[in-house]
Amino acid sequence: MVQIIYTREAVEDLQRLRGFIAEKNPASAQRIAQDLIRRIKALQEMPMMGRPVASAPEPEVIRDMVFGNYTVRYAIHAQTLAILKVWHHYEDRFGEK
To answer: In which band, very low, low, confident or very high, does the pLDDT at 92 lie, cut at 50, 70 and 90?
Structure first.
């Protein structure tokens, strides 16, 4: 089984998303954060379940997995699965807005 690591950007994404939701509904923020972490951990068992990112230099290495309204971008390496970025589908994932 591969080890999951989180980039600093992914950790900041998760904190930002949780903080945004918590402003309106703290209980939902906790539940959504736990669900995202649980689903990310499921990638350890089936890391290829996400779809390849066609625009990536190595589409089979960089993948997106959609969990409800959230997308998790990750990279598959020999012994690790690196969580690169997490965003809600209403967000501009490249920070252009």
So the answer is: low
In 3D, which of 68, 84, 89 has the Cα closest to residue 13?
Answer: 84
5-59-73 Cα angle (round to 5): 35
**How confident is the prediction for the chain on average, in pLDDT?**
90
In this structure, is the dihedral angle defined by the CA atoms of residues 32, 37, 38 and 40, taken in order, positive or negative? positive
Fold of domain 3-88: YaeB-like fold (3.30.2310)
Q: What is the pTM of this model?
A: 0.88
- Cα distances from 3 to residues 10, 43, 52, 70, in angstroms, run 16, 10, 20, 22
What element of type H or E holds 87?
strand 80-88
